[in-house]
Specification:
There is one protein chain. The chain is an alpha+beta fold and about 200 residues long. The protein has a single domain (about 25-200), classed as Reverse transcriptase/Diguanylate cyclase domain (Alpha-Beta Plaits). The protein has six helices and eight strands. The protein has helices at about 5-15, 35-45, 65-70, 75-90, 115-130, 160-175; strands spanning about 55-60, 95-100, 105-110, 135, 140, 145-150, 180, 200. A hairpin with a 2-residue loop joins strand 2 (about 95-100) and strand 3. Helix 4 (about 75-90) runs antiparallel to helix 5.
Length: about 200
């Protein structure tokens, strides 16, 4: 991509009437839910097992509503921006990290179907979000619940993949396991970083 192409894209995004703006989240500058689904559908059309597969990661920041109520929306927004930046640093440019809704993020990852690699990626995402965040005089240690769905058979739709990842995420949140892989109706669970309630420390 040339310098002029990047500049043109940046100018287009800055235009409030540009269609490009409708595909991005204004708070974090990440692709939004619409862009996420479009990328996921394209990935499922192109990449198939056994050589490559599509992984969907559904991440929800635990107790974010309580954090917002306690410290205010401005602090909550900074937490979301920080989480978004950390996730972006871990996801390769050819893949995608997206803000799906208020405190929910999604990742589309194209990978070789190696279970150990999927676990490693998930642990890294969990650790990145859970690392201390310093915002002004406050230092936060937030946690996330993560669900992972892998297109093992190569026949899943985008909606099915999202439903599976969301189901796994809610199971991880309910069990406090940090992250869970969707497999055989959640019959098999792999635990990572232990999830907990929001912990906050601040310096006056």
């Amino acid at each position: 991509m040339t310098r002029s192409t990047v500049l043109d894209a940046s100018m287009e995004f800055g235009n409030e009437k540009s269609p490009l703006r409708s595909m991005y989240d204004s708070l974090t500058s990440l692709p939004n839910r619409s862009a996420f689904y479009a990328r996921l559908e394209r990935a499922l059309d192109v990449f198939h097992p056994p050589h490559q597969t599509v992984i969907v990661v559904f991440l929800d920041i635990d107790d974010f509503k309580s954090l917002n109520a306690t410290f205010g929306r401005q602090i909550g927004d900074e937490v979301l921006r920080t989480a978004a930046a950390r996730l972006t640093q871990l996801i390769p440019a050819e893949d995608m990290v997206s803000r799906l809704s208020n405190d929910e993020f999604g990742c589309v990852i194209i990978s070789t179907p190696i279970p150990e690699q999927s676990s490693s990626i998930t642990r890294a995402l969990s650790a990145a979000v859970s690392a201390p965040m310093r915002i002004g005089a406050l230092e936060f240690a937030v946690h996330a619940s993560i669900g992972v769905a892998i297109n093992v058979n190569g026949d899943a739709t985008a909606s099915a993949m999202m439903e599976r990842a969301a189901s796994a995420m809610y199971r991880a949140k309910f069990n406090g396991t940090g992250y869970t892989f969707f497999e055989n109706r959640i019959a098999s669970t792999e635990s990572g970083v232990v999830a907990g309630s929001v912990q906050s420390r601040w310096v006056l």
